[in-house]
Specification:
The protein has helices at residues 22-31, 77-84, 111-126, 136-139; strands at 36-41, 44-49, 52-59, 67-72, 89-90, 100-104. α1 (22-31) crosses α3. The radius of gyration is 22 Å and the shape is globular. It has a domain at 51-128: Aspartate Aminotransferase, domain 1. The protein is an alpha+beta fold and 156 residues long. The longest helix has 16 residues, at 111-126. Helix content is 24%, strand content 21%. β2 (44-49) and β3 form a beta hairpin. A 6-stranded antiparallel beta sheet has the order 1-2-3-4-6-5.
């Protein structure tokens, strides 16, 4: 107990309450990765590596009932994650059709798992040997534009 006018000293190494918020923890995870920058986009914090977006906060986006982070996932992972734990993972709007996955961080998240998924998304967007493989159809050469034939007068 402390007497009036005296403040209680915090234990050495004690974290402030603001350091334990989901956003503070997510920010620390993201910014611990090399070459990561934080930028506010669409009214939310986003994190990028080499200019490529790899994580975005979803703070009750359009009235949703959750606080989450959106992350790109390797081909097929989104569906598997949502099927395995639909209370924790979801298909986010706007980017879900491109394989991104929403990860709830408001209901006792497994922060080790969140950190692993963030690092995986960072590596995926950064590129390099540990990134997920590109789908075969994405590697195909772009189609050549149609040109009228000079000998036959064009398409038939």
């Amino acid at each position: 107990m402390t007497s009036p006018g005296r403040r209680r000293l915090k234990k050495a190494g004690a974290k402030r309450r603001s350091d334990r918020t989901p956003l503070a923890r997510l920010r620390a995870i993201c910014l611990a990765l090399p070459d990561t920058t934080e930028k506010i986009a669409w009214g939310e914090p986003t994190w990028r590596v080499r200019g490529k977006l790899f994580a975005q906060l979803d703070d009750h986006h359009h009235g949703a009932d959750h606080l989450a982070v959106w992350l790109p996932a390797p081909l097929g992972e989104q569906e598997a994650m949502i099927f395995t734990d639909p209370a924790r993972f979801f298909r986010p709007p706007y980017v879900g059709h491109r394989g991104w996955v929403g990860v709830r961080i408001d209901r006792r998240p497994n922060w080790a798992q969140v950190a692993k998924l963030v690092a995986q998304a960072w590596a995926f967007k950064r590129g390099g040997p540990d990134m997920a493989p590109t789908p075969p159809n994405a590697r195909a050469a772009p189609a050549k534009p149609w040109r009228p034939s000079l000998t036959r007068g064009g398409p038939r």
